[in-house]
Amino acid sequence: MSAQEREKLTGQSRSTLRESAKNLRLTDKATDIGKGSELAEIVLYGIMHHHYGALPVVPKIFYKQNAQDNAKGADSVHIIVEGDDDFSLWFGEAKFYNSIEDARLPAVVGSVGNSLKADKLKKENSIITNTSDIDRLVTNPELAARVKDALSSKNSMDQLKAKIHVPILLLHECTLTASTTEISDAYREGVRKYHLERASAYFKKQIDALFGTISKYSEVKFHIILFPVPDRKKLIERFSKEVELYKGFSPFRVEWGGNGRREGRANG
């Protein structure tokens, strides 16, 4: 939702979830196309907000043309206020894979490279500058004005490269996590070693593909976020069921009858 819509529902958690669910895609279960992609976008949104302290200036799901469209461009767009008078721009990529071995990595590199093209960045900037969220979320009016001026289409994208960060979330199924029953030191060390190897492999492919093709590539800061889960299919199924419930599309809902007993009813 937009910042204004979120403000109106402050303290109303169920209403917030219900309104948010309306913009979720719920991909075709028969084709499996894009399954889990929106869940990855939501996880990245949470990481950006709670870990990095980012302002949710452009919730990309909100700006889709309709609930069955993919959000165009970067999967997340955020502004982080740096001190009292500066800011950085974060254009995120989010994927949910059943593996992060080498065969998956070129697609991520291609997506990152595409999002850093000048025309794509200009489009993202135009969305940011045309939303009232900046004025609501950037409390310093002088800084808000500077943000809008910096993002103006009259300026070259190269002038912004030093302010751009690209967080790359790879939510992924992990056999080590699936076989673990507790977060022990041995598990942490195993995941750390595996993720370090995967991160090194990814950045090698990205540098080989994008260095020299993206103007001022070395000024952009990249962050890879590897998030292991035990079972991708089960997680997506549970997420989809929750979304269907809040969308009002669940084929079966539970209600409490007047006698205090729980009753199942089919939705019309």
Which structural category fits the helices and strands?
alpha/beta
Say how many strands there are: 7
Global morphology: globular
Radius of gyration: 21 Å
Strand order of the biggest β-sheet: 1-2-3-4-5
Helix percent reads 40-55%
Note the total helix count.
10
> Ranges with pLDDT <50 over ≥5 residues?
28-33, 65-71, 250-268
The number of domains: 1
Compute the separation of the termini in Å.
27 Å
Measured by DSSP, the beta-strand proportion falls in 15-25%
Major beta-sheet overview: 5 strands, mixed
- Give helix and strand order, one letter per element, not per position: HHHEEEHHHHEHHEHEE
Give the rounded overall mean pLDDT: 80
Descriptive report:
A hairpin with a 3-residue loop joins strand 2 and strand 3. The protein is globular. The chain has 268 residues and is of the alpha/beta class. Helix content is 42%, strand content 19%. It has helices at residues 3-8, 13-21, 37-50, 105-115, 118-129, 133-137, 141-150, 175-178, 185-210, 232-247; strands spanning 55-58, 76-82, 86-97, 164-173, 221-229, 252-256, 262-266. The protein has 10 helices and 7 strands. Helix 2 (13-21) packs across helix 10 (232-247) and helix 4 (105-115) packs across helix 9. The two termini are 27 Å apart. It has one domain (31-240). The strands form 2 sheets. A 5-stranded mixed β-sheet has the order 1-2-3-4-5. A two-stranded antiparallel sheet has the order 6-7.
Core attributes:
268 residues; alpha/beta; two-stranded antiparallel sheet; 10 helices
Secondary structure elements and pairings:
Layout: H1 3-8, H2 13-21, H3 37-50, E1 55-58, E2 76-82, E3 86-97, H4 105-115, H5 118-129, H6 133-137, H7 141-150, E4 164-173, H8 175-178, H9 185-210, E5 221-229, H10 232-247, E6 252-256, E7 262-266
Parallel strand pairs: 3-4, 4-5
Antiparallel strand pairs: 1-2, 2-3, 6-7
Helix pairs in contact: 2-10, 4-9
